[in-house]
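Researcher: Let's do a round of design. I'm pasting the structure tokens now; please hold your answer until I've finished.
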């Protein structure tokens, strides 16, 4: 299936009889985003971004608009992320994303209030990670050429096991944060973080090693 087929109106339905087709379409999108191919402004995949953003806005409005039990919230996250979500996930809304279909979380992940995930390029959060208030995970960049500003590059973000990201931190495209690391509040992480390391500042730099 092509990206153009993904952008057709029939692809957005979630009726049970078309669930398998929908999952196949989502995997095609994820495979494209894993390929490293460019996203040109106005292209089929760019149009898919807009379609997925509308779906995400609808589901996050439901998540953020009223109280939900943990089970209800997990079901909404499965709709948003388009995949099975561990029963041990924790989240305090509000939560925001402009895509949602390229996020993977492990067991016992906790996401605090106000987080924003720009996950088109892929976000993976391994088990036991803690994501603090108002954290931004951003996998996209726009072209520096003003004539091509609508075009985008992207790279995945990978957050390792038992990582703690403090409030108001930002993690940029292509960053891997190693197992057990800590990102201080307000940091802007532009480069990979070694395991069991504390980083902070703008841009984030090593503060100390964690002895384990």
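Researcher: That's everything. Go ahead.
Model: Designed sequence:
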């Amino acid at each position: 299936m092509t990206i153009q087929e993904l952008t057709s109106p029939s692809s957005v339905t979630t009726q049970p009889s078309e669930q398998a087709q929908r999952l196949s379409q989502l995997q095609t999108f994820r495979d494209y985003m894993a390929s490293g191919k460019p996203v040109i402004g106005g292209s089929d995949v760019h149009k898919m971004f807009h379609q997925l953003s509308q779906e995400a806005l609808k589901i996050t409005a439901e998540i953020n608009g009223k109280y939900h039990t943990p089970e209800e919230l997990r079901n909404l996250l499965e709709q948003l992320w388009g995949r099975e979500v561990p029963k041990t996930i924790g989240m305090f809304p509000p939560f925001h994303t402009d895509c949602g279909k390229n996020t993977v979380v492990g067991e016992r992940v906790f996401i605090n209030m106000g987080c924003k995930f720009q996950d088109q390029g892929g976000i993976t959060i391994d088990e036991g990670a803690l994501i603090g208030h108002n954290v931004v995970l951003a996998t996209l960049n726009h072209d520096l050429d003003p004539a091509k500003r609508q075009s985008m590059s992207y790279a995945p973000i990978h957050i390792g096991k038992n990582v703690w990201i403090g409030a108001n931190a930002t993690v940029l495209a292509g960053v891997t944060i190693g197992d057990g690391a800590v990102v201080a509040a307000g940091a802007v992480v532009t480069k990979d973080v070694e395991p069991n390391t504390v980083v902070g500042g703008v841009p984030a730099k090593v503060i100390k090693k964690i002895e384990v």
